Amino acid sequence: MLALRTATRYAWRRPRNIGQVRLFTNAQGYDAIVLNASSDSGRLSLAESQLISQSTRSTILEQLSVSNFKKAGDVRVLYNVGGVKQVAIVNLGDRKQLNQGDNLEGKRLDAARTAAAIGVKALLNQDVQSIGIDISTSAHGAAEGATLATHSFDRLKNPKSRKPVVDIGPFLETIENVDPFLTWETGQIYGASQNLARSLMETPANLMTPKIFAEEIAYLLAGLEKVEVIVRDEEWASRQGMNSLIGVAKGSEEPLRFLEIQYKGGKEGDAPLGLVGKGVTFDSGGISIKPSNNMALMKGDMGGAATVAGALYGICKLGLPLNVTAVTPLCENMPSGRATKPGDVIKAMNGKSIEVIDTDAEGRLILADALYYLSSQHKPHSIIDLATLTGAMDVALGNAFAGVFTNSDNFWKQLDAAGQFMSDPFWRMPLNDAYLEEMTSSSVADLNNLGLGRSGGACSAAIFLKQFVSGIENAIPNVSGNPELDDAVEQAENEEKIAWAHIDIAGVMDSKHSNGYHVKGMSGRPTRSLVELARSIASK
Question: What is the pairing mode between strands 426-428 and 402-406?
């Protein structure tokens, strides 16, 4: 299965021993090695280690001194140095800058991450089978960068066209540990988690239907401890009153799935962290069909579900001591005789009626039911939903930041810290009821699903979603017509507010260029930041 292969491909296997070498102590027998160099007042140096002889060190530095090796990110490949077939040396830049300013741990992590990725990419096409990675700056960062750099979604190509699978492993010693928890093994897990999300997003929609997605994740997580995967169908969704999800799904021949994952790494009875991922495995726009240009990219419209699945894989593999409940509503958005039409009215699980003005604003519809189900049934202490939701977010922030809308300053600080630490940053956006005004103007329903359209579109989508999170104050009361349900909702909203964050990842959905540890194609962002956030919550 795809997901399992993705997870195992990057695991480090000890390379074969190719014999004794003279000038590098290369006990693992690597074909090639990535080394980091840094400068101090213009003078280049390598990490101090008994694994590199003085003569080898001198040879490398002499070669670098005549090769215009000056800027951070510069890379040079030397051949047959110290008995090793190929050695890639990557410039970390000025050593003082790495040890000054804010977020020092994050800076060292990213320097190691970037250098490992640049070095590995320089060696991938050099007919090597195993690469040793310099971990002297950060073992975790080096493993992350190398793992991310070796990712390639080429399984559908002719075998002769596929990139070779290369073993990676640690070389040298970690001089300065960023954190005792962060090791070579944890770096591999963080990197493999993002690669899993990348592969799920990159898979063509005919090979990644809602049914296949659910089966892949169930198969991947089945062998891990403390995790339960529950896959539900349309009949179950109908009994729950998830008409908003069903309304999007019914235009497609592919049946919907509602995937629920429960990880119980914390104390029994402790409230979980809640994760919700938008899982539209292909988005044509429905009756409000999209332009044909770049519609092929809409295979990645399940990026929210993919990043949630990748993060759960990492959390489970790390064995973090917290409880997590994740849900991903999975469906296609297609035009047909059964599809929801503009002007139709549907009633969501929480009893609110929605006039569907634009069927291409479908992500918020399936998230509405998922958010209400998770918040009302599982009572998490915090919820994060992730979605490739609006083109407006791409216009606002491009691909540098993912946009965050949240009702909690403290939760924002935690997200911001995790994003900075992983060099996968977030930017806080306004969550304000002013953006709700146009959505409450429907003459036939409580809400419409479009608001102001392109103007403030990401903000309108966020405030729409807020109406479906039980346990936080909303502008429109939940009135379902069911007295028992209304009483339960009122009780929930009188309790302590849930910390909720909506992350719009439309802008960071794909990478246009291959740069450092970024690979051209679907990005899998911000999977590593979600794993780091969970680690931060678990440590408190």
Answer: parallel
Q: Which of 95, 290, 347, 428 is catalytic?
A: 290
CA separation for the pair 288, 248 (Å, rounded): 12
Count how many residues are written for the chain: 540
Sorted by sequence, the CB contacts under 8 Å of residue 129 that are 6+ apart come out as 15, 31, 164, 166, 167
Answer yes or no: are the C-beta atoms of 456 and 392 closer than 8 Å.
yes
pTM of the model: 0.91
Q: Whose CA is closest to 62, among 49, 83, 46, 47?
A: 46
Catalytic residue, chosen from 57, 317, 352, 364, is: 364
Could you confirm whether 107 is annotated as catalytic?
no
For 259, the 3-state DSSP assignment is strand
Helix segments in 136-242, DSSP class H: 139-149, 184-202, 210-221, 234-240
Residue range 84-124, pLDDT digits in tens = 999 999 999 888 888 777 778 889 999 999 999 999 999 99
Contact, 405 vs 435, CB < 8 A?
A: no
CB burial of residue 485 (10 Å; 0-12, 13-18, 19+): middle
Q: Which CATH topology does 2-182 take?
A: Leucine Aminopeptidase, subunit E; domain 1 (3.40.220)
CATH topology of domain 191-471+493-538: Aminopeptidase (3.40.630)
> pLDDT of 469-496, one tens digit each?
998 877 776 555 555 555 555 454 434 4
> In the annotation, is 157 catalytic?
no
Domain boundaries, the chain: 2-182, 191-471+493-538
